[in-house]
Design brief:
The complex is a heterodimer.
Chain A lengths: L2 H20 L7 H10 L9 H10 L3 E6 L7 E6 L1 H27 L3
Antiparallel strand pairs in A: 1-2
Chain B lengths: L3 E6 L2 E6 H16 L4 H22 L6 E2 L1 H11 L2 H5 L10 H11 L19 H9 L3 H14 L2 H12 L6 H8 L5 H18 L1 H12 L2 H37 L15 H9 L6 H28 L6 H27 L3 E9 L8 E6 L21 E3 L3 E4 L3 E6 L7 E10 L2 H9 L5 E4 L2 E4 L3 E4 L8 E8 L4 E4 L7 E4 L2 E2 L10 E4 L4 E3 L5 H24 L1
Parallel strand pairs in B: 2-3, 5-11, 5-14, 8-13, 8-15
Antiparallel strand pairs in B: 1-2, 4-9, 6-7, 7-12, 9-13, 10-11, 14-17, 15-16, 17-18
Helix pairs in contact in B: 1-3, 6-7, 7-8, 12-14, 13-14, 14-15
The chains are: A mainly alpha, B alpha/beta.
Chain lengths: 111, 552
């Protein structure tokens, strides 16, 4: 078992959660989402994001609208659907539970 | 100055350098390969292209109108490697390590390795070479295995023929790449072709001419050539196997203990070096002669094996130096042997025979009992016709050479009178004088005690005299009407009784014989007096004549 695989799996679930969170209170186009995530050091390259967005959109958790850009091609502005909002709520609960659980276990077993 | 291409990404036109374009195209293709779901893929690719267009837009400035290689590199840094796209692909990829790994493998070019016959490096049909690629082992290993299989069980040929029938020949480039276990794609084919080009260039014009000739040569010639090749292979196999057998045989001859060559083996003369030592004149050169003998015999055999192997495996290495060395060494060895054998022959030039009379204590006895003394050097139980005879009956110690093969001749006389015994000793030598010296130094005791005669089972000579064909013969002359009785171990030395030579494996020990007018008869089978009377009456005349003849 490679640590890279585990990391990737952990990150993958969190990525979806974070994308949904970013989009929960505003519309955003990919570059914006990416720059936020880059700041949080969650992802390093944009490549990772595009397939995720497409899949979330196909799962009808996200939808987008085209917005003309001043300089260059039009941009896809993503936002949450109703389903997406519910989905995010569930994820939030799960995440809180998980976070608590992980924290507790890590504390108990530290040193 | 660089060529530019104009491209359309997401409805926007960009000028891009050709090299940068190639780079970008490869990059996008690789990303595209990551996605299996077609609808998803198109959409994702559209998004990515859109983003690329956006990034290109940022790169373009009033004084920079063209996208260059460096821009592509920067875009790759932003977007990530093709693999980074894959890591966010289908959920299935995350289920466990296995699918992850296998999907990774799929992302790389598929690698296949198949068994083909490699006719480019073939000795016969390219089976061994193909197997070599398949198992990543040098093809020579398989060739050796096949030859061994052929020698040992004969099954190698059958196996080879089956493989020949079953395994396809690697004809096309992709088959050749598959044979070597590379992935078949545009790059590997390019590489393969460029390798071929390189070899062709190395071979120079000859290869081109070869190509043309090959095109022109008709099928008949090709068939003829392969028949010739096959025949030469058979010769190769023959040479190799024959050579190996000869070599083994020679080793047995030189060092073995099987008794193929006389004088060798335990309790016999200690191998060829000892043989040389006791035959060759002088002290020092026995090892040189031995070495020469070995070289003279082994070099042709090794050459034969080498030739066979070269034919068999199509080795084309230049072995001129080795060949010349072999030839020179062999000639020198032959020369040495010639010189020494000439010298040796000169030591056998003269020969001499001397007869010694042995006085008997009781020469007038009616019956002489002849026995052989105890053999303290060899054995009391040797029949000279056992084994191969003489070779087992030569022995050397610090001082003496022993030769256990004296000959006894019991001769019937027509005359009446007394027993006479003589020893005839003979030897060769460089000169008659030397031969006589050798004879005089032969020690062969004979003891007369009353009516008993004890003769020695072996002769002994000083080691310095060397073997010069020294022989000893004992002659016992039995007068008419007298008897002989053969005692202990007589069969070891008895060769002639009367006119008859003693047959192999006969037993005369303990027998008694009477001489009736020049022929021996078993004692008691005929009454002597009666025989004399009959003989005197009828054959007086003839008897006198033969007496005269004998006296002559």
């Amino acid at each position: 078992m490679k640590v890279e695989n585990t990391k990737a799996q952990m990150r993958k679930g969190i990525l979806e959660y974070c994308i949904l969170t970013i989009l929960s209170n505003k519309e955003a186009y990919p570059s914006e989402i990416i720059s936020e995530m880059k700041e949080a050091k969650l992802i390093v390259v944009e490549g990772t994001l595009y397939p995720l967005l497409t899949r979330l959109k196909n799962a009808e958790l996200l939808h987008y609208k085209w917005v003309e850009s001043v300089s260059g091609p039009p941009r896809k502005y993503y936002s949450l659907t109703e389903d997406g909002a519910k989905f995010l709520d569930e994820l939030k609960n799960t995440w809180t539970e998980l976070h608590t659980a992980v924290q507790q276990i890590s504390k108990t077993h530290q040193k | 100055m660089n060529k530019t291409i104009s491209i359309n990404i997401s409805g926007f036109v960009f000028n891009i350098e050709e090299q940068a374009y190639e780079h970008l195209k490869q990059y996008l293709d690789k990303i595209r390969n990551n996605f299996s779901n077609e609808d998803e893929r198109d959409e994702i690719m559209a998004d990515i292209e859109l983003r690329i267009a956006e990034l290109f837009q940022e790169k373009i400035a009033p004084n920079k109108e063209v996208i260059v290689e460096e821009d592509i590199v920067q875009i790759q840094e932003i977007l990530g490697l093709p693999e980074d796209f894959a890591s966010a692909d289908d959920d299935e990829n995350y289920q466990d390590d296995k699918t992850e790994t296998s999907s990774n493998d799929n992302n790389q070019e598929p690698k296949t390795k198949r068994l083909y016959r490699d006719t480019d490096n073939a000795s016969i049909a390219g089976i061994c070479s193909g197997l070599g690629y398949y198992f990543d082992v040098d093809r020579v290993v398989f060739r050796i295995i096949f030859v061994l299989l052929f020698i040992l069980f004969g099954s190698g040929i059958l196996l080879y023929l089956i493989l020949w029938l079953v395994v396809p020949e690697a004809k096309t480039t992709s088959e050749k790449i598959e044979m070597k276990g590379g992935a078949v794609n545009v790059e590997s084919i390019k590489e393969h072709v460029s390798n071929i080009k390189q070899t062709l260039t190395e071979k120079g014009n000859a290869a081109n001419v070869g190509e043309k000739v090959r095109g022109a040569v008709d099928k008949g010639v090709v068939v003829g050539l392969s028949v010739f090749q096959a025949v030469s292979k058979i010769f190769g196999v023959g040479f190799t196997i024959g050579g190996i057998f000869m070599f083994v045989f020679l080793m047995i001859l030189l060092f073995g203990n099987t008794g193929i060559l006389p004088f060798i083996g335990p309790d016999r003369i200690d191998g060829i070096p000892m043989l040389i030592e006791i035959i060759y004149p002088g002290e020092e050169p026995s090892s040189l002669i031995f070495f020469s003998v070995v070289l003279v015999l082994t070099i042709p055999i090794i050459s034969l094996i080498t030739l066979g192997v070269r034919i068999l495996f199509n080795y084309r290495q230049n072995i001129k130096i080795v060949a010349w060395t072999f030839a020179i060494v062999w000639s020198v060895a032959v020369g040495i042997l010639f010189v020494y054998s000439t010298e040796l022959a000169s030591n056998f030039k003269s020969d001499k025979e001397i007869r010694y009379s042995i006085p008997l204590e009781d020469a007038n006895t009616d019956e002489l009992i002849i026995s052989v003394m105890d053999d303290d050097q060899f054995s009391n139980h040797i029949d000279p016709y056992d084994d191969w005879g003489a070779s087992e009956l030569v022995k050397v110690d610090e001082e003496f050479i022993y030769f256990g093969l004296p000959k006894l001749k019991v001769i019937s006389l027509y005359d009446t009178g007394s027993f006479r015994v003589s020893i005839i000793k003979e030897s060769h030598g460089a000169t008659t004088r030397e031969a006589i010296g050798n004879i005089e130094r032969i020690d062969y005791p004979i003891i007369s005690k009353g009516n008993q005669l004890f003769i020695s089972p072996y002769l002994k000579m000083p080691k310095e005299d060397k073997l010069r064909a020294q022989y000893v013969r004992v002659e016992i002359l039995v007068p008419r009407g007298k008897m002989v009785k053969f005692g202990k171990n007589i069969d070891r030395v008895l060769r002639h009784l009367g006119d008859e030579s003693v047959p192999y494996a006969s037993h005369y020990e303990g027998t008694e014989w009477i001489n009736l007018r020049s022929s021996f008869h078993p004692k008691g089978s005929v009454d002597y007096d009666q025989y004399e009377r009959i003989f005197d009456n009828g054959q007086e005349q003839t008897d006198e004549q033969s007496t005269q003849e004998q006296e002559d």
